[in-house]
Amino acid sequence: MQKGAIRVQTENIFPIIKKFLYSDHEIFIRELVSNAVDATQKLKTLAGVGEFKDELGDLAIEVKLDNEKKTITISDHGIGMTAGEVDKYINQVAFSGAEEFLKKYKGQSEGANIIGHFGLGFYSSFMVSNAVEILTKSWKPGAQAVRWECDGSPEFTLEDIEKDSRGTDIVMHINEESEEFLDEARIGAILRKFCRFLPVPIMFNGEQINITNPAWTKKPSDLTDEDYQNFYKELYPFSEPPLFWIHLNVDFPFSLTGILYFPKITKTYEIQKDKINLYSNQVYVTDEVKDIVPEFLMLLHGVIDSPDIPLNVSRSYLQGDPNVRKINAHITKKVADKLDEMFRNDRKSFEEKWESIGLFVKYGMMTDDKFLEKANKFHIMEDVDGGTFYTIEEYKQATLALQTNKEGKQVVIYATAPVQQDTYIQAAKAKGFKVVKLETIVDAAFINTIESKWENVQFTRVDADIADNLIDVEEKKDSVLTGEQEQSLEALFQSQLPQPNIKVNLKGLSADTLPVIVTRSEFMRRMKDMAAVGGSAASWYANMPDEITMTVNANHPIYQEILAQVNKEKQEKLVRNLADLALLSQNLLTGADLTAFVNRSVELMAGEQK
Q1: Which residues bind ATP (predicted)?
Q2: Is the CATH number 2.10.10.90 carried by domain 2-207?
Q3: Residue 538 dihedral angles phi and psi, to the nearest 5°
């Protein structure tokens, strides 16, 4: 029997491992099962290059609990270790056997796809154990099996034993604080979280808990739509089917595989981030992928797998690295190319999915200029009547004659609530304007951002002004009223305004235009809309009063009747009712003012009946 001290730089590495290296204790399962997979993959590599000539046999890895002995055992039938290798790879902490093996056999076989890079994974077992045993027998002909044991101090024992089969058993004697890990359900859940897609069968309680060849590891040409949909169900059993997906498969200048799914998103936007899982060689790492996946795609679902993503020693956090930036840029490009392809190949299907797709596209256009450049071709806006969609270039062509203002800018007229804004929409359409819907949660921010990125384009909400003024073309119509009548009418409205923040503006509009139209300042309304969504730097706008303009159409025939009215009180009530009706159309008449309007209307109608 050999006795000795583990050769480490510090006198006692175990408190450091327990406290700082692995903050999440459950990952000891991931580390030890990953090591077992490494050992198995190494054996496959040796067999592939002809060094191992025996039968491979059953290569499944087994996880066993023994509640009486309070042990967890992880067994593999991989390459095993000799006494010398145990001394080298276990006793010399942080000397990574996986890295040495990779250098020797790089590129010779798929089995060389080794998980371990750190050499410290085995020591995570001491987070939960009073003592750990290794019972191992090397694949090498005539090798002597050995048993290594350590109780968490730098002292260890190493002795010869009898062991029938090659491979390694790691036996962990679970400490009192960690007895939660002796629960079958707990271990089962951890295995399904971290080991669900490992490339070697993992057995627990007599059942295989993993899929060794998940969809993302296959060639896209070998997969059907049904295969992709079934894999989505495997990942998210209770979700609606995805709209479509993108299969990532890159081997230069970095290795990246994966499948990203576009989920169906409804107008309620009950959406979750952190639905993309990061794997490294099929080992689950994290669902914190914000550096790898562009921010605007964080609402996607799916899997990304890359051994080239740098992790810290506990594999829990990404570290800044050029590869991460390259992968991020590649994913952006792949998504843009896929959307462009869908738009060109089946525009009708693309339009049907726009309600969900649009959220990603608009967010991407706001935050990523390279994506914006491509998305300009497939970003679409739907007409308020539904069914007709325009790209920005198509909208420009359709509105060139009527919606170009005096500065040469194309004016995009939009509605945020088509039902509520119907009066304004009908007035705009009567002038031949095209009105589009921009009614999602991101549209207020999208409009503000995109105006500065699209040349010669200006967005104007359909109720931002009277239809005649939506396109500033310096047209002026004369009023049919005399100067004296205009002064009287303006004074009447000024005396009947229910709110102090209303500006009265008399204009000579078409006789069939509404008698009074209320509009809100485009700038102020945008700021208030953004503040209401939250996160706006101008959130103080939310508490400011609306800037309201009340445009009085002096050419409407009703004013001839009102001005001819000899009963001053009735004249004032009629004007007040017209003002209130206009405010009501914009949801700006509430509370006592609304009650007074209803009562006054009844009174005026009753008077007409007499």
Answers
A1: 31, 35, 76, 81, 96-97, 168, 315
A2: no
A3: -100, 40
On whether 186 is known to bind a ligand per the annotation, the reply is no
**Per-residue CA distances from 603 to 557, 558, 559, 576, 596 (Å):** 22, 19, 20, 13, 10
Span 380-470 CATH architecture = 3-Layer(aba) Sandwich (3.40)
Domain boundaries, the chain: 2-207, 215-343, 380-470, 483-609
**Does domain 215-343 fall into CATH 3.30.230.80?**
yes
Helix, coil or strand: residue 133: strand
Task: Enumerate residues 6+ apart whose C-beta is below 8 A from 293.
Answer: 276, 300, 304, 328, 331
Select from 110, 109, 94 the least CA-distant residue to 17.
Answer: 94
Q: Does 96 show up as a binding residue in the annotation?
A: yes
**Is 31 annotated as ligand-binding?**
yes
Q: Any binding-site annotation on 280?
A: no
Q: Which residues share a beta bridge with 276? A: 302
Question: CATH second-level architecture of 483-609?
Answer: Up-down Bundle (1.20)
Question: 529-538 long-range CB contacts below 8 Å, 24 or more apart?
Answer: 529/416, 529/444, 530/444, 530/445, 530/448, 533/441, 533/444, 533/445
Per-residue pLDDT reduced to its tens digit, 180-227: 999 999 999 999 999 999 999 999 988 999 999 999 999 999 999 999
- Is residue 253 reached through a cis peptide bond, with omega within 30 degrees of 0 on the bond before it? yes
The two beta strands, 283-286 and 276-280, are antiparallel
Per-residue pLDDT of 87-131, as tens digits, reads: 888 876 534 444 554 565 455 544 444 344 444 678 888 889 999
* Residue among 230, 228, 233 nearest 246 (CA): 228
Cross-strand bridge partners of residue 133: 149, 171
Place of tokens 């002809």: 50
Q: Which two tokens stand for residue 202?
A: 């993992």
CA distances from 169 to 80, 88, 172 (A): 9, 18, 10
The model's pLDDT over 446-464, given as tens digits with 9 standing for 90+, comes to 998 999 899 889 999 988 8
**Rounded CA gap, 46 and 35, in Å?**
17
Full-model pTM: 0.72
What's the CA gap between 220 and 232, in Å, rounded? 15
* 168 in a known ligand binding site: yes
